[in-house]
Automatic annotation (TrEMBL):
The keyword Cytoplasm does not apply. Coiled coil: none annotated. Keywords: 2Fe-2S, Iron, Iron-sulfur, Metal-binding. The keyword Hydrolase does not apply. This is Rieske (2Fe-2S) protein. Signal peptide: none annotated. InterPro entries: Rieske_2Fe-2S (IPR017941), Rieske_2Fe-2S_sf (IPR036922). Residues 4-107 form the Rieske domain. It comes from Novosphingobium album (ex Liu et al. 2023).
Amino acid sequence: MDYVKVAAVADVAAGRIVPVEAGGLKLLLTQVDGTFYAAQRKCPHLGFNLCRGAIEGRAIVCPLHKARFDLATGAIERDPRLLFIGMKARTDLATYPVRVEGGEVFVGLPDQDGRKP
């Protein structure tokens, strides 16, 4: 498993969503109660940019359809909804392990065969 530096701790204030790139992957980085989380930047439902979303507790909410995903596991906590139309989310959010060392934030990337760390 390779860890790639993506930000300085000081660049990620609590509750802020920061777009980062690591190994060609477009990710988001956030910090909740001192714990850092990294996840895919696009919503797995319609591909909307989650950096424009909101942090609620330890979850991120898509600004387009209000689907809610746990930042630690990527699990769907609330299905998408557009206007009055309810939908069923079929895919969890991809999440990545995060390590903090010496004031820098590192994200663990999938192995070359595509397996997540």
